[in-house]
Amino acid sequence: MKQMNCPLNGVRNIQEFAHGGEVVDQPDPNRCSDAEWAEFVFMEANTAGVVREWWCHVATAYWFIAERDTLKDEIIRTYDAGELFKERVDFTRPEAPKET
Amino acid sequence: MPFGLIKYALSSSYPGKRFIAARPELKSNYDVVIIGGGGHGLATAYHLARYHGIRNVAVFEKGYIGGGNTGRNTAIIRSNYLTPEGVAFYEESVSLYRQLSQELDYNILYSERGHFTLAHTDSAMRTSRWRAEVNKHLGVDSELVYRDDLARLIPQLNLSEDVRYPILGALYHPPGAVARHDGVAWGYAGRAAELGVEIHQGTTVTDIEVTDGKVTGVVTDRGRVSCGKAVQAVAGASTVIADMAGLKLPIRTIPLQACVSQPHKPILDPIIVSGSLHVYISQSDRGEFVMGGSTDPYPRYQTTSSLDFIEGLMSHVLELLPHLSEVQVMRQWAGMTDMTPDFAPIMGETGVENYYIDAGWGTWGFKATPVCGKRMAEMVATGRVPALIAPFRLSRFENFDQVGEKGAASVGH
Question: Are A80 and A7 in contact (CB under 8 A)?
Fold first, then answer.
């Protein structure tokens, strides 16, 4: 049974976790072009090697970050998202499209 | 006892004809280079040579032909998809498969069994009805069947309501078939090689040369070749190869596992699939039960099998077919699938001139082998994208114009 170290709950079976995708910067939805937004939504680095990803411990709904080797299926390190994100990110509501 | 066989046994040199020529030396230039010697790449090579007169073609395969996902799928062929684009595409594939043994003069053991996609929830019943209506509108034989029909058509099936997911009905697709998947790769390779296509097994592509936005050559571990056009058809390695050409893809590489049981006498004619339980099962011509399940829960570049998978799959299989409880699993394996966000493949132009992509086949590529070969070859030869595959272009993502096939994929969600 494969196990993962949850920064909040300790070592748990891998079935308790959900994979959340690569850690990528979200472009500002109010300013970026459609192409940039499409790239953010759809494109994947899909790296063959060490990746940095979001994971969630489902039972406690706790999101954290894991570094993992996709070639060896080894989990290198898991840590709280606070290590990467030092301050709160707020998004302003986009302007409503003008009615025509 | 055929005397030919005794002659073979006593002969000091191997008198049989090689199916494909031993690996030739690389030439310095090819009209078309195909990266990936699976069913899709070999079918494309065959169609280029046979129908478009382009015979200066090389297929580069890192391992051996058909050793990737072509030989790792569960060999199911069907066209009961959800979107009109998908149905039209797969329907052409089924029609090509039906006469493929004659076309290739090689028996691919095509066997029409009937295909049932079981529905266990109201929403699955709605999707089944939707698919049946789209299918019938496009001339594909599909219909929604209910519990009484299922009791008659698949008497082996456990229709008890005292299970976790009772069966409410199914989408019945009579033309659903299985075939010998290695045979498809070998048949295309053999005929393509006869027509002059060079098949380079054990040849790893290490770089792709792009000059002024146009592909000019391919570098391998055996040397560099220049090429007029190039096609990549490498499934789980799509991102890695596309990166060499400077392309980014909306693909995640996720392992998909499958297994077979020991052989038994024929007791299960149809192919049974359950999207809710993530199971598909059919009995091969050799009598083995071929079973597959969901994709692995997270992306990896690996083909290792896991006990978790087999445990989960078996509990679901036994809910559907309890009489298989004494059957022993013989082998299990995995392949690396290239999953797209909309569960539809990617075929066509890439933005790099003369460089074409065939990827994103995820868990559904084997059934498209002939049509993909035919249409990819047509595109490479004529330089125009055939209407049948135009909806599957790579640029559909940046234009937010996806082809949503999730409802027709058995697994991976």
Answer: yes
